[in-house]
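Methods: holo model generation. Sequences were used as deposited, without trimming of termini or removal of tags, and paired with ligand SMILES retrieved from the corresponding compound records. Each pair was processed once, and we did not select among multiple samples. The sequence and zinc ion SMILES for this entry were:
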Amino acid sequence: MTTIRLRFPGFPQLRVSGVDSIEFEAGITPEEVLNQHLFDLPEAEVLAAKFNNKIIDLYVPLKESGDLDFVRPNTPEGLDVLRHSSAHLMAHAVLRVFKDVEFAIGPTIEEGFYYDFDLDHKFAPEDFALLEAEMKKIVEENIPIRRFEYSKAEAREMLKKQRAHFKLELLEELGENNVFSFYQQGDFTDWCRGPHVNRTGKLKAFKLLSVAGSYWRGDERREMLQRIYATAFPSQEEVDKFVYVREEAKKRDHRKLGKELALFSFQPEGPGFPFWHPAGVTLLKELQHYLDGILFQHDYQEVITPMVLNQVLWQKSGHWDHYRANMYFTKVDEEDFAVKPMNCPGACLIFRNETRSFRDLPLRLAEWGRVHRHEKKGVLSGLQRVRVFTQDDAHVYCMPEQIESEIGDMMRMLDEIYKKFEFSYSIALSTRPPNSIGSDEIWQHAEGALKRALENHKADYKINPGEGAFYGPKLEFHLKDCLGRSWQCGTIQVDMAMPERFDLAYVGSDNQPHRPVMLHRALLGSLERFTSILIENFGGAFPMWLAPEQVRVIPISSEKHLDYARVVYEKLREQCIRATLVTRSQSLNYEIRQGQVQKVSYLLVIGEREKTNNQVAVRSHEMGDLKAMSLDQFIAGAGAEIRSRSLHSGFKK
Ligand SMILES: [Zn+2]
Ligand SMILES: [Zn+2]
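and the model returned the structure below.
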C-alpha cells in the first residue's frame, strides 16, 4: 500500500492537534478526506478542492503528497466553479425541455454566465420559468457529476456521437497532447475543462436573465445562435439583490433619465458628442462651482489652455507616438495642428513661460480641460464613453520631497468630495511596469511617497504590480454608488517624463537649475461621466443644490391665486433659487403628479388660505407633504439647504 502525506495550510487548527500533515492511502479523494471530519467543514459547504494551488474536482484521486485546501462558495474561485456548473445545469435543462438542441460554448462572465444554443425553437423570456423549474428539478435529483478524460480520437468519437459540430470544430484546432475532459451529469455530457461541483444539489440559487442572438465565434458570416444570459450565486438572497440592482440600474439608466429630464441629447450629426440642454448645464455648472471652491481652498490657480495646438508640440509630448490614433487633426495656415486629447502639454508651456524658483513650488495649475478623443463608434456609450469631455484636471509642479504632502492634500480633497455624495471608495496603487523610464532611485522615491501618503491617510489600498504608466506610478480611486456598483473616477499620477521632454526647470536654493516633478490629477475624472454617475445614483432626483428646477410654484386657480403665486415666485428668484411658475391652470392633481415625475425638489401649492396668510403649502420630493409655513420660513430653509449643499431636505415633516 502506497501512502501520501497531505498538508492543510487552510486549517491551522486540525482536530488532530500537534501535527502539520497527515498520512493517507494514495488514491484518496478530497471528498473522502472531508468525510473523515478532521476539521469543522461539512462537505456540503465545499464546491471543489485545491491541490498544490490547482483547483480540482472533489472526487479526483490524489496520487502524491502535497497541500490540500477546499474551495468555498463565497470566494472568487468558488463563484466561478458555481457559475460554470450552473451553465451545465442550464444546458441540461434546455436539453430536457427542448430535446433537439446543439451546444456551442458556455463560459462564465463577470456577472454570471451564458450558453450559446442552436435549436429551432426561438427562446423567449417566457421560457425562462419553464427552464428554471427544470433546473430546480435537476438540482433536487442531486445527480452526481463526474469527469472523464479522453484522447483526442476518443473525444472526436464522443462529439460525433453527440452531433456536436461546433465543438468538433474547436476540437480539431487543439493538439493531440491535450487532455480532453468531459463532464457527465445523468443524461447530459459536456466537453469542458472544469472543474465543477460534484453533484447538482450544490447549485441552489440561479436566475435566467436575457436572451440574445449571437454569431458562432462572433463571425457574422457564421451560424446565428441563441445565447441565454444567466447568473448564479451561493444564496437566493444574493440572486435577489443582484436582480434588484439590475432592475434598478435599468430604471436609473442615465441615457433614459437624460432624455426624460431633458438634460442632454445625442444627435446623428455628432456621434459621441453630447449636446447639453439647459437643465444639464445647470448640473455641470453647480458641480464646477462646488469644485472651484475646493480648488480655491487648496491653493490651486486656474488656467485655460488652447483647444488646438500644432503637431510639433504633440510630437514633443509623446502623444504623436503613443496616442495619435485617438486624436483629431486639422490644418491652420498650411501647418499641421491637433485638437488636444489631454491638457498636460499646455500646462507645461505655462510653467515654462516664466523663470520658476523653488519658492514658487508647489505650483498648482487647475484646468477645466475640455478634451477630444477619437473613440471607436462601437465603444461609445451614453456619457460613459464620449468623444469630448471635460476633465477636472490639474498639474502640480513640485520638488521630489514635496510629492508626499501634495498627494496627501489631493487625497483630502478627494475624500471631501466623495463623502459629500456619500460615496465610499477604494484605492489602487499601480507600480512600475517593465518598460519604464527614469532611474530606480526616483521610482523608489515616487512609489514610497505614494505609499506613505496612503498610510498617513489611513487608507486601505491594493497594489497592482507593474500596472503603472511608463513615466510614473499612479493611484486610482474607485467609488461605490448607492447600488454598490463600482466606478473608476479619480486618478493621481506621478510623471517624471514630461518635465524632461519639455526641459522644465526651477532655480533651487543652490541657485542651480533643477528638474521639477509633475503630478497629474483629476478628482471627478470626467465631468460628463461623473454627472452620469450622479444621475444614476440619485435616479434623477438630485439634492436641491444640484437640481435644475429647485421649486415649482403651483396656483390652485390661475384666476384667483396667480397674483400671489407670482409674488412667491419672484421672491424665490430674488434669492437665486431656481423656481418656475405654473401659469396655465390644469387640475391640481395633474400638476403635483408632473412635479413628481420631473423630480422638482419642492412644489409650493398656493390656494386661498396660503394667499390670505402669506403662507405656502410645501410638498418635498424626498419627504412628501410638509406642514404649511410662512413664505419667509420656506425661503430661509431652502436657502440654507442649498448653501450647505446638503443631500437631504432640511425641513421637518
Ligand atoms: Zn464547464
Ligand atoms: Zn495631465
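The chain has five domains: 3-71, 76-249, 276-305+341-537, 306-339, 551-643.
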